[in-house]
Structures are given as C-alpha cells and as structure tokens.
Amino acid sequence: MIVRFVKMTFRPEEVEHFQELFEGWRHRIIATPGCRELELLHDISEPGVFFTRSEWESQDDLEAYRGSEVFAEVWPTVKSLFAAPAEAWSLHVEHRMNALNA
Known about the structure:
The chain has one domain (2-101): Alpha-Beta Plaits (2-Layer Sandwich). 34% of the residues lie in helices and 35% in strands. It is built from three helices and four strands; from the N terminus they run E-H-E-E-H-H-E.
C-alpha cells in the first residue's frame, strides 16, 4: 500500500474556490481504481495550506491516476490557484495502529 501526501498552498482569495472544486472532484478521485482512501486536511494555523492524503493499493495505481483524465482536469486547475509550488511524498506504510488494536 502507498500513502500519498500532497501539500498545497493557495493564494488567500482562492481558498474557498479550491474547497468548492475539491467537493466536486472528490467522488471522481476516490472512484479511481486502486484508491482506497482520500482525505483533505486544512492547516490549523495557515489558512491557505491544505494537504491531501490518499491511500493506493500500489504505486502502479497511483501512477495510473496521475495519467488519468480526472487528474488531467484537476491538476492544472488547482495548480493555477497556488501561492507556492506543491510538495508531494509517496510513502510505504510500515506499521499502523489505532486505539482498538493498541
């Protein structure tokens, strides 16, 4: 499994616009084959900073999404709203715990 974090910093006047766009896209993104989970996280102290956290069955599934029609629509639109370049990390899950299996 792959976990992908993407940090995005938006111009202040574009924050609400991004949130509206994400609301419309999120169902299409999670429907991508291999996408197991999708979250949008909003920084507590920096109102223009958001992270997406997504889980993918494999690196191949993530790469297929990045080559998809959905990504081709989403990314250029979102990128045009940025105040700074995006940062991204792809990570393998080494261990996971929650309160139920602690």
